[in-house]
Automatic annotation (TrEMBL):
<keyword id="KW-0560">Oxidoreductase</keyword>
<dbReference type="InterPro" id="IPR027443">
    <property type="entry name" value="IPNS-like_sf"/>
</dbReference>
<dbReference type="InterPro" id="IPR044861">
    <property type="entry name" value="IPNS-like_FE2OG_OXY"/>
</dbReference>
<dbReference type="Pfam" id="PF03171">
    <property type="entry name" value="2OG-FeII_Oxy"/>
</dbReference>
<dbReference type="GO" id="GO:0046872">
    <property type="term" value="F:metal ion binding"/>
</dbReference>
<dbReference type="Pfam" id="PF14226">
    <property type="entry name" value="DIOX_N"/>
</dbReference>
<dbReference type="GO" id="GO:0005737">
    <property type="term" value="C:cytoplasm"/>
</dbReference>
<dbReference type="GO" id="GO:0005634">
    <property type="term" value="C:nucleus"/>
</dbReference>
<dbReference type="GO" id="GO:0016491">
    <property type="term" value="F:oxidoreductase activity"/>
</dbReference>
<keyword id="KW-0408">Iron</keyword>
<comment type="function">
    <text>Involved in the regulation of shoot development and salicylic acid (SA) homeostasis.</text>
</comment>
<dbReference type="InterPro" id="IPR050295">
    <property type="entry name" value="Plant_2OG-oxidoreductases"/>
</dbReference>
<dbReference type="InterPro" id="IPR026992">
    <property type="entry name" value="DIOX_N"/>
</dbReference>
<keyword id="KW-0539">Nucleus</keyword>
<keyword id="KW-0963">Cytoplasm</keyword>
<keyword id="KW-0479">Metal-binding</keyword>
<feature type="domain" description="Fe2OG dioxygenase">
    <location>
        <begin position="216"/>
        <end position="319"/>
    </location>
</feature>
Length: 367
């Protein structure tokens, strides 16, 4: 086949992948397309019997009981939060006060969104990273050399009245259910910020950072991971850290999230109705490296679709993020340069985002 004949075929193939993995699966797949096959060192580790090789047991993250956090055992819970943020960069929250119907309804309505015809979902497809609503695929479909087995819907959510008119109007109850969910996760985030500040021994009431975070950004990211015919060859999401301060993750009952712990990938047990909360790059910077933004990735499986809903929270997009002055003294020099959202966008617009490269680029290397 001549080069002039090959080029249109390649373009057509790429266009097919740009429509998302759900679209591919809906049209029938028995093998993973080459575009989704990861280099061998980056693949999940599977045995020859095609069963996922797991550690001896899945990792059980520290559990924070929100009721305890608001009660007389607060100081003990704060110590547990500090230890979790230093050791794992992750913890799970139970008894968080969000009604079970709110979280269940959010998962269900998101499933319905991804079951809509492609023509309806594609209305929100754009490469504009600042768009109030963005439907897309992979991790960064404009930069990824190898695609991930994931489609997503990203919704800016604060201030909610500014963005709500742009949110999907189908399914018919999507906006109302997602509004309740976004509002309640924001309230949970604000309570967690207060606890995080206390755990760092920073006064939460007289604290400019806490005030900024109260007015800060919120993005709700819905992730859809369809069943994959050859899950040992691909990933739902590549190893990455979260840009932001804190991420609150709601999962269905299908496991898939892994974190890098002691140089090994370990799977997190989903606890029904709980939230997984993780430290973002901004909190690692703000804590001057005390709290760790940890690498995590997502595996897929051959039998069950998986839905997760992440609520990403941070400072306002115009804010400068830097180590807290209250954690800096003559014995503790700043470990990170000041940064802002514009710097981040410029960084990811020029390369494939992966691992903790952006955070590493902000580190100060003292002689």
């Amino acid at each position: 086949m001549s080069p002039t004949m090959i080029a249109p075929v390649v373009v057509e193939e790429n266009n097919r992948y740009q429509k998302g993995v759900k679209h591919l699966c809906d049209n029938g797949l028995t093998k993973v397309p080459t575009k989704y096959i990861w280099p061998e060192p980056d693949r999940p580790i599977f045995t020859k019997s095609d069963k996922l090789t797991k550690p001896k047991q899945n990792l059980k993250l520290p559990i924070i009981d929100f009721a305890e956090l608001l009660g007389p055992n607060r100081s003990h819970v704060l110590r547990t939060i500090a230890e979790a943020c230093e050791t794992y960069g992750f913890f799970q929250v139970v008894n968080h006060g969000m009604e079970g119907d709110v979280s269940r309804n959010m998962i269900e309505v998101c499933k319905k969104f991804f079951e809509l015809p492609y023509e309806e979902r594609s209305k929100y497809m754009t490469s504009d990273m600042s768009a109030p609503v963005r439907y897309g695929t992979s991790f960064n479909q404009n930069k990824d050399n190898v695609f991930c087995w994931r489609d997503f819907l990203k919704l800016y959510a604060h201030p909610l009245p500014d963005y709500l008119p742009y949110w999907p109007s189908s399914p018919s109850d999507f906006r109302s259910l997602a509004t309740t969910y976004a509002t309640e996760t924001r309230e949970m985030f604000e309570m967690m910020v207060k606890a995080i500040m206390e755990s760092l021994e920073i006064d939460g009431d007289d604290n400019e950072a806490a005030k900024e975070l109260k007015e800060g950004s919120q993005m709700v990211v819905v992730n859809c991971y369809p069943p994959c015919p050859e899950p040992e060859l691909t990933l739902g999401m590549p190893p990455h850290s979260d840009y932001g301060f804190l991420t609150l993750l709601l999962q269905d009952d299908v496991e898939g999230l892994q974190i890098l712990y002691r140089d090994e990938w370990v799977t997190i047990d989903p606890i029904p109705g709980s939230f997984v909360i993780n430290v973002g790059d901004h909190l690692e910077i703000f804590s001057n490296g005390r709290y760790k933004s940890v690498l995590h990735r997502v595996l897929v499986n051959s039998t069950k679709p998986r839905i997760s809903v992440a609520s990403l929270h941070s400072f306002p997009l115009t804010s400068v993020v830097k180590p807290s002055p209250k954690l800096i003294d003559e014995h503790n020099q700043p470990q990170y340069m000041d940064t802002d959202f514009a710097t981040f966008l410029q960084y990811i617009s020029t390369r494939e985002p992966k691992w903790k490269n952006f955070l590493e680029s902000r580190k100060i290397h003292h002689l």
